[in-house]
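User: Assemble these into one structure.

Assistant: Restating your components, then the assembled model:
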Amino acid sequence: MSNENKIEIEKEIEIEIENEKKIEIEKEGSGEESKGEEEKEQNTEKEKEKGGEEKKKGPTKEQLEKIKKKVQEREAANEPKFIKGADFSSFDLEDYIEGYHGHTRMERLLFIAQRSEIHQQKALKMFIEEVKKTRNIQKYRKIVEKYSDVLQDEKSLDQKWIDKTLKNSANTYDSLESNLKKAKENVNQEGIREGNLQLGHFYFDKGDLKSALKYYSRAKEATSDPIEIVDCCLAAIKTAMEGKSYSHISSYLNAAQKKTEDLDISTNGILKTINGLLQLTSREFKTAAHQFIHAPGKNTFEYPEIFTSLDIGIYGGFLSLATFNRRELKRNILDNEYFKNYLELVPEMRDIIYNFYESNYTGFVEGLNLIKPRLLLDQYLSSHVERLYIRIREKAIIQYFSPYLTVDMKKMAKDFGTTLELIEIEVSNLIAEDKLAGKIDQKNKILYGTRINKRSQTFQEVLNFGKDYRRKTRALLLRANLIQNKMTVKRPRKKVMMGGENMNFMNMQLLNLMRGFN
Amino acid sequence: MEQVLNIIFQNSNNKESLQHLFEFLKKKEKIINEQKNNLDLYLEQLHNGHHTLGCLFLLAAKAQAKNYFLCKRLAEICIENSVPQAAILPLYQSIQKLQKTSELTPAHPYLMLVSLCSKNFSVATKVLEEEVFEIESKRTGLNIKEVLLYFYYGGLIWAILKQYDRATHFFELNISFPANILSRIVLESYKKFIFTSILSTGKVPVLPSQTSHVVEKNLRQFCGPYLKFKQFFENSNSLELNELVVKFNDVFGKDNNLGLAKLCIQNLLKRGIQRLTKTYITLSLEFVAEKFGLGSVINAEFYILDMIEKGEVFAKIDQKKGEISFHDDPETYQSSKVGIRMDKEIQEVIDLSNQIKHLDERIMVYPNYIMKKMKEDYHSQKKSEEMNEKKMN
């Protein structure tokens, strides 16, 4: 029960944070802008975009205060903590981060820094390096201040960098703006698209995700070439992923997928993978697994701004292990040539799947334990790892038991690398949840498979169903009759009283009758 | 009519002829009915003590609807005079005579009431067994309160007879009747519903979808301790449950539900053990004692023995080794009894579906329904015409 509660709370918090982040993004946007005209334009445009969400001229001071408090509370509650109970010493940070480029590199480094104590310092240093390559001053400031005690050398804000970046930003902004204006005056569609796109990149780099999205969408509308549209969509998706705005991701994804029906397979692959990530964030594990597995095709593809090819192997393999049954596993993974290529890139995952399929449970459990740190430090998987691990383990136990009539639980415990007591608890839970058909002989520690007597069961079910049906039908008939006779539970009206004499007479008769009976 | 009276005089003397008299009177019912105005006269002629059967018929003829008022008064008088059992038989007979098949009459609730007061349930069970669902309020003068009371009292009787499944069904009916306000009877039904459903299935089902909103909303308001009880029961914590009952002792006591509450607590233990049978083939008595906080092995043995005797669990206890081994339900459904039962139930279902067909036919001919249907058809026809016009334009 607590797991379900957690899921619900997590979902709520995600939505709240998304809302808050949007508002924060807006605040940042309105704070950073130095151009007066632009500000007014932006504000009016924001009004149009938001519709009824905020008040007319942006949120009032009081509202801002309230929102700030809420955000702080939520952030305090949702503060990323170190993951305990996992050994991260085997995790190679540089190896991992090698494949990622751009903003996702930065994001992932921050994620790891917040969750692995061992790697925190190194990850933060690398993060600072990365953030300096962008124009995102806000983020730089925030992280340096927050982790100042951990960062020893870089403790002080690099003011020089900040100033340089500000100046640079202002200049770039000016030139981009004038380019766009010119293109608009000359009604140069190509120029308009390019100008909007560049501005979108500019804001993305600054960390103003909301504005970036706006410009990307304008760029997309300014062209009809499918390839260019897809480019704009991908840029928008990248932005939306960073801002965790899932509705945007799905709408741009849909738009892009419509266009790629005609296009090459590699873009399709990229889009499918992104779709997989989207499904993963909404806990649709099986759909996500399908997306990852069917993404690979004849051509290779890559999009290191969001994922690496290793990710496809890992996500696809892990999620299918957790959600597919044996037949699906065979069809989708073992017989799937294209996906296997990606799986080979991650031999640990490949081994786990093969061990599971070949019922080599010791190897299977060892492999799972080995890969756990890597999964826990992955930005998209981390929150789901524990839950999925439990699921995978359950599946393994069920598979272990399925060919046998009786199983010695001591051997079972050894094969799964746990103690007898623990395995007994796991098995009894599975039986209680109807996932395992068996009974435990506690004295001899044996698990017996039950031959469910289908015949008796059917009889029982049929008789119960018949009784239920008869009851319900009669109840409905009664109800229909009540309604037909216009009888409902209402306020009582005055009852019609009978005449006094008649009553007395009747009473007399009754009493006499009684005496007669007795 | 004179003839009838004479025969009554003649035959009311000995028991054998009473049977004949009864049949004779039944045949002559029509004649008796026609003489409505003069019945009083005739009644005076008969001496009530001797000619009770005749009187009954005449009185029945006197006013069919009034007859039910009679029942009510009868019940009330008997209860006042502390002889509730005296009313049982007459009420039963009046139901038998005046009832159409499967019909609910005003006599029903009073029969139940009287049976409860006199703690004599043999007659009542016969009536309860027959499932009622027909109602003709014009002819019988039935009102909704009597309907509610019938199911409430009926539920109580089933609960006393430990048929919790049926009791739950009755209470559930009460709760789901069409309603504009919450009636006290429904409230009490709900409280008992919680307990009896726990006793029969171990959990409280969701209220059926036909329950009116008014009822649902208000139930929560007035049944606080009961809902807490339900919650704690679902958490299977017998200590907390005990504390709760002690805390709300007066609330439960005022509603006369203390007994049910205590039974439920006992039930918790039973359900726990029944769950065990699903997971284990053999179990040590120590394990059971520990898991359910029964104190000693002897207590555990005692409880399980009790359950085995009542047929609530199928097991054998090995006293020397301190173990229990569970078997499956030995019922194989291969006896002829099962065949007969299935036949009977199939027949009931066929009858029911006939009933539904009749109801359907009745509705189809009902003037209001025909009018509504015609209006609907007209509207939809118009709409489709408009759509066609638009398409053409």
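The CA atoms of residues 232 and 241 of chain B lie 6 Å apart.
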